[in-house]
Structure formats: C-alpha cells, structure tokens
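Example record used in the benchmark description.
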Amino acid sequence: MLEKKEFDKSDFIWRLSTTVTIVSGFFALLVFTLLLVNYLQIQRLDPVNHELLTQMRQDYANLPEKDMALAQRIRDLDLITRKAFFTSQTFLRIGAWTLLVCVSIFLIAFKNMIRWRPQLPDILDEPTANKEFLAYAQSRNLITWAGVGLLAGGMMTAELLEAKNAAAGESDAEEAVPEVVVVPPTWEEVQMEWPSFRGPGSNAIAHYTTAPATWDVEAGTNVLWKVESPMPGNNSPVVWGDRLYMAGADAEKREVYCYDVNSGELLWTTTLAPLPNTPAGDLDVMEDTGFAACTMVAHGSQVFATFANGDLVALDQDGKQMWGFNLGLPENHYGHSSSLIAYDNLLFVQYDQSEDGKLLGLDIATGKEVWSTPREKISWASPILAHTTLGPQLILSSEENADAYAPTTGALLWSEQCLGGEVAPSPAYANGMVFVANEYAVASGITLGGTAEAVETEVTWQFDELLPEVSSPVGDGTHFYFGTAIGDFVCLDAATGEERWVEEMDEGFYSSPILVGDRIYLGDMAGIMHIVKAGESFERLGAIDMGEPVYATPAFMDGRIYIRTESQLYCIEAS
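Model output (structure tokens):
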C-alpha cells in the first residue's frame, strides 16, 4: 500500500497566497459590481432610444419654422449622450478583461493557499483522513464555483451590454452612419446661395442681379483672384456661404475641392478612397463628358459629389466624409453626367442607364434610400426642381418624355411624350410653363394646370428649327433662351413658341445661359463670355475673352461671378 504524501509546509507562501486570494476576490467583486452599475446606467443613456432626445427631435420636427437654437441643443445633448455611451463601451471592454484576470488570479491563489498552509487542522471525529480531505474538497469546490459564478455573472453583464451595443451599431449600419442631427436649409436659404448646377433649383435664374458686366482677364481688371484647377472636370462650381466647391477626376483618382470665396485659398482637398462596391479597372468615358462631369450640390452644412464610375459621397464643410457608396457602374456609352440636386432632407440622383435606370431620393444625413422610382427612358440631362403654383416638382427629360415627380415620394406627377434622341439639355421652368428641347427632336412648351393632387399638362406649342445639343435653356416668364452647339443664340416667345430672334456666334455652346436680372450670361467653347439683354430684340452688352474654353456654367453671387474655364477658376468682382 502506497504511503500517502504529506503536504509541504511554507508559512510565507501560505500568507502570500492568502493575501492575493483576498485582494483578487475583493477586486473581482468590485469590478463585477461596477459592470452591473454600468449596465443599469446605459439603460438611461441609450443614444438611440433616449426619451428626452427623442422628444426634442419630435418637437423640432413639428415646428412650423426651423428653430436653430433647439437644433443646437439637440446636437449638444446627442453629443453628450453618445460620449457617455461610447465611454461605457470602453469601460465594458476593459472591465470584462479585468474581471477575467482577477478571477483567474483568485482561483490560482486560492489553490496555492490551500496547498501551502502550515499545518492541517486537528481532526476530532472519525473517520479522520477521509473527512479531512472531503472538507478540503468541499471548500475548494465551494470557492471555485463561487469564482466561476462571479466570472460568469461578469461575462453575462458584458454580453448583455455588447448585445445592446451591437443592436445600436446595427441600427447605425442601416442608416449608413451613426445617427446625427442634420438640419436641412430652408428653400429661402437655398435661394440666397448657388448650391447646384445652374443655381437654386437648377433653373438658371440668379437671385442676385449685381453681377459685373465688364472685366479683363489678361489685365486683371475686376479679377479678384484666379487659381489653377488641380484636376480636370467639366462640372460647374457651387457656392454656399464663404466656400466654393468643385470636383476633379481622372481614371485613377477622384477629388473634391473647397476654396475660400474671398481669397481663392484652397481650404481642403478630399481624395476619395475606394467606396463599398466601387468597380475596379478602367472606365471608358467620352472625352466631352470626362470622369467628373456631374456638378456637385452644396446643402447647408453638407456637400455631395458623384462621379462617372457611380461613386457618391457626402462630406461636411471640413471635407470629412459623412457617408459614401457606389451606385453601380453606369451602363451607357457616354458616362454618368447628371448633376445632383437637393431639397429639404433629400438628395436626388438621376441615375439613368441603358437598363434599370432610376431616380433616387436619399436621406441627406445617412445616404439611406427614402424612395426609388424606375426610369424607362434615359438621358444625359440633369433634373430641375421647379416651384410651381401646384407645388414643387422634380422635372426630368428623357429620350422620349418630359417627366415630373413629387420630391417627397418620387411619385410620377405627369409625363409628356415630346422628345427624341439622346437628350442632354435640362428642362427650364418659368411662369407655369415647362420648356424642353433637344437636337434632332423638337422644342416643346408644356403648360401646367389642374391641381396639386391631379396635375394636368398640355403641349401648347412646338419648335423644330434651331435646337440645343448640350447647353440647357432658361426662361424669364416671357421668353425662353438657349444656345446651340453650332453657335446660334435663340429666343422664343414663351406663350406661342414663335422665334423672336436668332444671333449667330462664332463658336458653339456647352455651358448654359444664366438669367441675371435683365441680362443673360453665356460662355462659348472658345472662351468668350457673352452678355446679352433679355427681351424682344437682340442687344449685345458685352463679349469678354476668358482666354480658354468654357464648358462649365458660372456661379453668380452678390456682385461676383465664379467662372471655371478649362484649366482655371476665376472670381470676377466689380470694383
């Protein structure tokens, strides 16, 4: 029979093990308690379902007018709540690992405390050895299971918080970015800026009528500043506040630029990293279109850009990406060229291609799709937002039709089959009439009637002589004006479609005419900025040489014109 091995005795190691056992056990219990308290606190600070924050957002949404002070309080509370939430996540991760370490140390120290104790207890009852070892075993089991229970409880708390955080993260992922408060500008605010292609609503009518009529690029007269465009792009400059935005791209790189409107200083450049689903490989585009033909849209505190490969991105005023994704590589032979437009809390994307074309309404804060309407026919053109007597309408041209949609829902309001060919000019709206035109088709004047709930349309007249190919028209309520690719500048009567005058220029037009008060500004492909009197007869007010071709459409603000030529960006200001 084997002799039972006696335990070694070491008073020092026993005392050390005992001390470590007590300290680690106490510390594990403390960490577990703090994790539990953290779990209870996060219930009150949930940024997704915070009662006070939710109530404030509901109150803000129900206000008849925007309350900027309330919006700022919402932002501040949202920021504080989120900071507390994410701090709790950090504490959770650190606490879970700390608890695991403490319980592990506790179990190891307890085992050593039992092994190294100086002497065995006196045994008074029979049987001796069996009862003694049974007591030890029971004690070890009790303390071991207590430690395991403590660890399990802590880990369960961690799992509960992680599950809650994952749910919040999943909600954020559905929204494309963490929930933020983005206050969209009012239509009145939009009209005071130059936010998109051809200005507010993309309707080619300037709010300010103080644009200079004389300048000299070579001599620098009335040229406030001039900078070189970093990368090629046919998109037009847009302006919001004291910042000007435009984009540039080539086959490998896509960039967004922000300039100070007063000095021309380049404030920042954002180079797009590959977005989710961004296609790899070469992209074929027409030379006239390029890789950055779509004009951006500035909308309050945000700016949006899209490119020929289908990349769509939202940036804040400092150039930081808020959200972005790829719409899909456009399946057409001319490349994606439709410019963006925004209204209230929606960004509109005309994504026309040979199959599965669509018009999208996206949430400006998240990029999440609010609505999508299929497009049977496509075009090169860009949408306009017309504020008609029947309410706002999103009006588009296609290969066959002029179509109008409800901005908030994407519902088709009306459609007229009056076009043909690969349409490039955008529509124009003035005084209750929509004007659409395209080379190799006809120009049509469409009168709007009926009610907002049941819009009625009529093609009042058509004109099939000189027609635009790329340049979009503009109307002043009495006439419609447009330029052609062969150099004709045309004026039609808005009520009848009769030709009022035609002026033959030396060069054709890709840039679109802008109505500034009673003057029309139109740049040609040779770089001449023509200034013409709007009215029944042709009257030239000026012809200013920009020194190189002008394909983009200028931006007009109070006393200033921002002109993008083939390689330069100018700010023209009357002295």
